[in-house]
Hints:
Blueprint: E1 3-4, H1 6-10, H2 18-25, E2 36-37, H3 38-45, H4 47-53, H5 61-73, H6 82-95, H7 101-134
Antiparallel strand pairs: 1-2
Helix pairs in contact: 3-4, 5-6, 6-7
Amino acid sequence: MICTTLNRIREHRPCQDQWPVLLAGLGKTAADDEPLPYARIVEICGVDDALWACRAEPQYAKEWRLYAVWCARQVEHLMTDERSRAALDVAERHAIGEATDEELAAARGAKREAVWAAAWEAARAAQTKRFLEIVGER
């Protein structure tokens, strides 16, 4: 079970809204060094805050990266550009030590290009649709 502590979370300046919620949920008024399972953070504050708190435990970077890849794989079927799928493969290989930082950077750049291409394509499609509505062609 992966744990952190309130003191380690506090070192990263948690948001002022959720910090009191976490403390209250734990029945505490101040940070301490008692092990705090991430599952408990999820129960009290939700997964978004638990993910944010991952920065408090950088020694688990491999696990955090593999989780991020898993999340992206859940919507991989929606990825229409092969560069995005390839970037996932490189990210996974990098997390387990089978791809270099340079390979990851290259994949990230290719993924960025794919995202921009998709955004422009969607914008052009919306523009065309709206123009045809205005001129009376449906």
